[in-house]
Target: Family 43 glycosylhydrolase
Amino acid sequence: MSRFLPLLFFFGAWCLAGPAAARPPRRQALPAYSAYLFAYFTGNSKAEEAIHFALSPDGYRYVALNGDQPVVSSAAISQTGGVRDPHILRGADGQSFYMAATDMVSAKGWDSNRGLVLLRSTDLLTWKSSAINFQQKYPGQETLKRVWAPQTIYDAQAGKYLVYFSLKYGDQPDKIYYAYANQDFTDLEGEPRQLFQSPTNGSCIDGDIVATGGKYYLFFKTEGQGNGIKIAVSDHLTSGYVLRDQYVQQTSSPVEGAGTFKLNNSPDYILMYDMYTQGRYQFTRTRDLTHFQVVDGEVSMNFHPRHGTVLPLTAAEASRLAARWLRPADVWRLTQNPAIRPQNTAVDTATGRVTLLVQPGTSLRAFDPGLTTFGLPVAPAGPQNFALGPVRYTVGRGAGRRTFSVAVQATSNPALPGYYADPAALYAEQTGRYYLYPTSDGFAGWSGTYFKSFSSPDLVHWRDEGVILDLPKQVSWAKTRAWAPCIIEQKTATGYRYAYYFCADAKIGVATSNSPTGPFTDAGRPLLDQRPAGVPGGQQIDPAVFHDPQSGKNYLYWGNGYLAGAELSDDLVSLRPGTTRVLTPDQTFREGAHVFFRNGTYYFMWSENDTRSPDYQVRYGTATAPLGPITVPTNNLVISKNAAAGIYGTGHNSTVQVPGRDEWYLVYHRFTYPQGITMGGNAGFHREVCLDKLTFNPDGSIQPVVPTHAGISPVSRK
Model:
């Protein structure tokens, strides 16, 4: 034959009749699940194209097993020497397990692979495997270019395991095919048949079928005519899929490798996918497989997965995996006490020292970290008195047993949970609260698309006020690179008005609201998208807004590589013509300007170096007028790295003054602690917002700020 036959009308009758081969054991009552196993690979080098495992207690927090090294040798199971895209499935009997993976080494070319690998296990620890080369197994396959992303589902009607995958022939688009596995899950029976072809005639790869409510939901990635994840739905597993012609990924970044799993003890599902150009996954939650909400803020991993899948586990199965592959040091990454800042847990595996940063005000006299050990023994158990100093713990058994010296520190830094940067601060007279307006960080290439705000009564306890401006939904002229906002409050005869200045696609826009938390309405066009006259280079980014208490006028400053400033019109959404000036203070100016007024002096602050550099830092100058000229003191460093404390990349700041008092605080971002300094350039978009006290010498000069983990104490306005 020349090629696998497409799925024609006669196959529906064949499927209903069912194959004659022996069937797997009857389905048993499923056990209670309390954990999750993530199977994945890690990258495009041959050493990274292998099966890795990670465990999770809740489907959100994951820790790599075996030190993030492969749990199965690719050389032992594949023909090419590498495997990718592992899919893991629990058998119909509830006791057996199946995996399928792409047999491929990408260095040989994306059109180089010709087969897949089937694996089976009864304990998740040892796996038997078979490699299937399609051109060797089936005649007439000369034009076959690739076999990608196999997955498995049990067909109860046929009584067999169905394996589906995408194939590409010649110049035709990729299509999804399927074949049944034999009883031993060592080979495919018969010839693969077409399961789905995109109605748009584009490529469709990375199929993932979810069976629920009597229907089958086929998630797949489209390529060639719009790229992203779509769903086709059918009443039958092997035929009749109807396309829902809309993308379901919740990002504008390229994605692939959709994987869907049901949460334990919940009707909800997680749809996750590989944001492969950003080196990370995105997790979304859904109940109806139609509407998806991003839950990235709840997800943590100590590894960087590529295209994988998740399997719910019983406690006994998780314990078995942990006993084999969980390193005792990694249990500290799965603490359950909500006071702990999991992003900031520091584990020194060489010395056995662990530092847990916890929320301010947490009592340390009877503190229980709430370890998740998946059955590994741990002592002591329960609450311990960390106020007296570090507590010694032992984790594990036998030769793998480790002792740790665990310290708990209550800190105010970082001020916000998660990745945020470029913070602008505001005290709002309307509400009597403080507000932070940061860049939403953690997106590769600074590709975030939305802005949030946070409010506090005391600069220490912050409340998430939610998204206040979403570029794809609310801004017509830009859709990504949401950076470096700032805000001003204006009291009017009828109330209060807020102008919010922000970067989008390297332009500066403005949106307005009657509330410091929105909703904000975009002006409909950029406020600034050109460099000032005479400036040869640099970006139009990093706005800073300033109200001059002496003149009552308002000013906007901006620039990357140069500093410019101009007076704002009374409407706050335009610049007063003819007032723009170039103010670049000296060669140290990079970006992130900020201006404030104190005791008759205008202070100009800016960031030096690149935000990806550990030496990103803040300098300042002074002026006697809002548009300069700026005088640069000899010793003008405001804040820089504190290597002894593991704090790096301290920059892009604002300040906040306690109303009615000469009491000031510096608001800035740093590399995420402790991982940032190990992340190379990626640290430049994995940043955290912090506050420390800002003090002045009697002559008005600024005392250098030493960045701390402790941060500040709650501020009273009385």
